[in-house]
Amino acid sequence: MGDELVVQNLNKTFYVDGKPLSVLEGINLTVSDGEFVAIVGHSGCGKSTLLKIIAGLESPDADGVVTLHGREIAKPGPERGMIFQEHRLMPWLTLEKNITIGLDDKTRREKMELASEYLRLVKLEGFEKAYPAQLSGGMSQRAAIARALVTGPEMLLLDEPFGALDALTKIEMQKEIIKIREEKKTTMLMVTHDIEEAVFLADRIVVLSNRPGRVRDIVTIALSDKRNRGAADFAWYKKKVYDYFFEPEEDAGPEFAI
Ligand SMILES: Nc1ncnc2c1ncn2[C@@H]1O[C@H](COP(=O)(O)OP(=O)(O)OP(=O)(O)O)[C@@H](O)[C@H]1O
Ligand SMILES: [Mg+2]
Fold first, then answer.
1. For 132-190, what is each residue's pLDDT tens digit?
2. Which of 82, 101, 129, 249 could be 55's S-S partner, Cβ–Cβ 3.0 to 4.6 Å?
C-alpha cells in the first residue's frame, strides 16, 4: 500500500478579532491507500478543521504540507468526498438531484442512473424523488454518504457522520460503511466522538490532545475478530483509547498489558 495522504508539520491558526487562536500544532500523519483511520479528541481540538484542510476547504499555516499521492492539496477535488457533521442536503431538491448536483459533465440520464446506483448502495432505493424533509435522520445521513461517493472518490472524509443518530441506527450505518469500504475500496478518514465506533471501524486511531490539537498517540488496532464488540481484545483497545481522555496530557499515555 502506498501513502495516499501525507500530512507534514501541519499547523493551523485562526484569527478571531485580530487575535491568533492556535487550533492545530505540528500534525504529522500518513494514511495508506484503502486504510481506515479514525480521529478522536475533545470537542474544539481541531478535528473538523483538520478534515476541512484535507478536503481543501481551509488552508493550513504556511509551513505545513498536505499531499495526496504527492500532489499538494490546495482546493477541493472529486477524488476527496466529504461528509459533514450535519447532512447538508438542499431541502428544495429531490434526493436524485441532491446526489448528482456536482456532476456537471453528465447527461440527465447518466445522472439518474448514478443516483439510482448510489441510493441502492446506501439502501435508499425508491427514494429518488423524495425530499430531505421526508427522510429520517439516518436516511439523510445515508443520502449524504451517497452524494459523497457518487463522484468515485479515492478518499472519504467523514466528520462525525453518525453523531446525531440513535444507537441502533448508528450500528446499522457502521455495518454499511464496512460494506461500502469492501465494495469500493475507498480510503476513509473519520472523526468520531464514539470510541467504540473507532475501534470497530478503524485500522488505526489518531488520538488528538486538547486545543491546539497535537497527535498524542496513534493506536494500531490489531484485533483477532474485528467485528466482535464483545471480545476481550476489543474491550482492551476501547479502554486504551478511552483512558487518554482521563490521563493528564503530559503523560505519554497509559501502560497496558494484554
Ligand atoms: N472559521 C473559523 N474561524 C475562527 N475560529 C474557528 C473557525 N473554525 C473553527 N474555529 C475554532 O477552532 C477550534 C476547533 O474547531 P473545530 O470545529 O475544528 O473543532 P472540533 O474538534 O471539530 O470540535 P467538535 O468535536 O465540537 O466538532 C474551535 O475553537 C473553533 O472555535
Ligand atoms: Mg467538529
1. 999 998 899 889 999 988 988 999 999 998 888 888 888 988 998 998 899 889 999 99
2. 82
Ligand 1 pocket, residue 48 CB under 6 Å: yes
Ligand 1 and 52: CB distance under 6 A: no
Burial of 108 (0-12, 13-18, 19+ CB in 10 A): exposed
What distance in Å separates the CA atoms of residue 46 and residue 29, rounded to the nearest whole number? 15
Provide CATH code, domain 1-79+155-258.
Answer: 3.40.50.300
Q: Using most ligand atoms within 8 A of CB, pick from 15, 47, 58 the residue to mutate for ligand 1.
A: 47
- Cβ atoms of residues 100 and 113 within 8 Å: no
* CB-ligand 1 contact for 45 (6 Å cutoff): yes
What's the residue count for the chain? 258
The residue whose C-alpha atom lies closest to atom 5 belonging to ligand 1 is 14
For 101-120, what is each residue's pLDDT tens digit? 888 889 999 999 999 999 99
Ligand 1 near 20 CB (within 6 A) = no
